[in-house]
Design a protein that fits this description.
Length: 270
C-alpha cells in the first residue's frame, strides 16, 4: 500500500470512529458535544477528498535526495564512539532488525534485538552477527548463551507498533538471572520454547565459531542455519513486511515505497 493510501485509510477510520462517537453521545443525551464531532468529520472528509484528487501530492514527496557534488571528506577516527556510531548507522541503513532468542545452561531464556545479522553464504548456509560488551563490561547474553548451548533462533517481527514495543523492551538491561520474556507479552511456540508465535518468520541457527575483530571489543559470531520456521510454503521472493532499523534508534517497516527487480547479476539468459 502506498503512502497516500495508508493516510486515506487512516482518515477514513477516524471518520468511522467519529460517527460511532456521535451515536453514543446521542444515546447519552450529550447533544451539545455533537457539533464539534460533525465539524471534525467534515474537515477530515475534505482532507480525504484532496488526497484522492491529487491536491496534496506534494505533501507525500520525499525530501530532495543528496548527492556528492559538493562532498567533503570527514575523518571518522576524529569522532567519539557515539558520533561514529550515529554516522555509520545513518549511512548504512536500513538494516534488518532481528529478535534473537537463546537460553542459558540454567534454563533462563534471553531475548535481544540485533541489527548486525547478515547472511554471508548459502552453501553452507551461514550467518554472522557482531556482539559487543554491555555497561558491565560483559558480552551480551545472546553470545554467552550460544557459546554454552550452541543454538539460537533469529526472528523477524511484523511491521507493527506493538512489535516495536517488544523490541524496545527486549533491549532493556536486566540481570543475568532475569529473562526479557517476562517483560513482554509474547507467547512461546508449543513445539519450541525459544520460538516466538507472534513472529512472521524465524531462522534456527547453530553456533559455529567466533572471530576477533582487529582493534575492536566486539566479536564476530558465525552461525550455521539449521531450520527455517514459516507459516507458508511460498518463497518470499519479494521479501516480507518486517521491521528494520533506520538510522541510529529509529525502527520502521520495510519494504516501504517503490521497488524494482534487478537481474543483471544472473548474466545473459541461455
Amino acid at each position: 500500500m502506498d503512502r497516500k493510501a495508508v493516510v486515506a485509510e487512516f482518515l477514513t477510520k477516524c471518520i468511522n470512529y467519529a460517527n460511532a462517537s456521535i451515536e453514543r453521545k446521542k444515546k447519552r443525551g450529550e447533544d451539545e458535544l455533537i457539533p464539534a464531532w460533525e465539524t471534525y468529520i467534515e474537515f477530515t472528509q475534505h482532507s480525504i477528498d484532496e488526497i484522492h484528487t491529487g491536491k496534496l501530492d506534494s505533501w507525500f514527496e520525499r525530501e530532495t535526495r543528496m548527492d556528492l557534488s559538493e562532498a567533503k571528506r570527514i575523518d571518522i577516527m576524529d569522532m567519539d564512539h557515539q558520533q561514529r556510531s550515529a554516522w555509520l548507522a545513518g549511512i548504512v541503513s536500513p538494516r534488518p532488525l532481528i529478535l534473537a532468542s537463546t537460553i542459558d545452561e540454567n534454563g533462563v531464556k534471553n531475548l535481544a534485538p540485533l541489527s548486525s545479522v547478515m547472511g554471508v553464504s548459502n552453501t553452507p548456509p551461514l550467518f554472522i552477527a557482531s556482539f559487543s560488551k554491555n555497561k558491565r563490561k560483559e558480552y551480551r547474553g545472546t553470545l554467552l548463551n550460544m557459546r554454552k548451548t550452541g543454538k539460537a533462533i533469529l526472528h523477524v517481527m511484523p511491521s507493527t507498533l506493538q512489535a516495536v514495543d517488544w523490541i524496545d523492551m527486549a533491549g532493556s538491561p536486566v540481570l543475568p538471572e532475569q529473562s526479557e520474556w517476562d517483560l513482554i507479552d509474547i507467547t512461546p511456540h508449543d513445539e519450541n520454547k525459544l520460538l516466538i508465535k507472534q513472529a512472521i518468520a524465524a531462522i534456527e541457527v547453530e553456533y559455529v565459531e567466533e572471530k576477533e575483530l582487529p582493534g575492536a571489543v566486539a566479536r564476530l559470531a558465525v552461525m550455521k542455519v539449521k531450520h527455517i520456521w514459516t507459516s507458508s510454503d511460498k518463497i518470499p521472493a519479494s521479501g516480507l513486511d518486517v521491521l528494520t532499523q533506520h538510522g541510529m534508534d529509529n525502527i520502521m517497516a520495510a519494504p516501504d515505497g517503490w521497488s524494482r527487480k534487478v537481474d543483471k547479476h544472473y548474466g545473459p539468459k541461455e
